[in-house]
Amino acid sequence: MWESWTPVPVSMTEVGTATYYGRFRVVGAQCFFQITITAGTSTASTAGLTYFPLPLAAKGYAAMANAYNATGNTPLDVCAMAIANSRVYPPTWAATGDVIKIAGWFEV
Length: 108
Prior knowledge:
With 108 residues, the protein is mainly beta. The protein is built from no helices and twelve strands. It has one domain (3-107): Immunoglobulin-like (Sandwich), CATH 2.60.40. The chain is globular, with a radius of gyration of 13 Å. It starts with a strand and ends with a strand.
């Protein structure tokens, strides 16, 4: 069963008030998560600077996440996963009013 959570971005550039929706599901020792970013007017991300704390503390050595433009149905890039501090760092995207989604997994 999926659980809701409100992801709170750090260093996301926003024009207008963006909304953030997240959900996650633990299966065995893996947590699967999804984040939806809906721009007020626009959002922009800077790789290595913008991040979202994960919904649970991450463990292990590896994790994976991808970001895509859900409005244009186009991939953006792979996200960086920081296991040591339980964060997902999305790739850079220029200011856009499009809906952006991030989906991935990590060990718990």
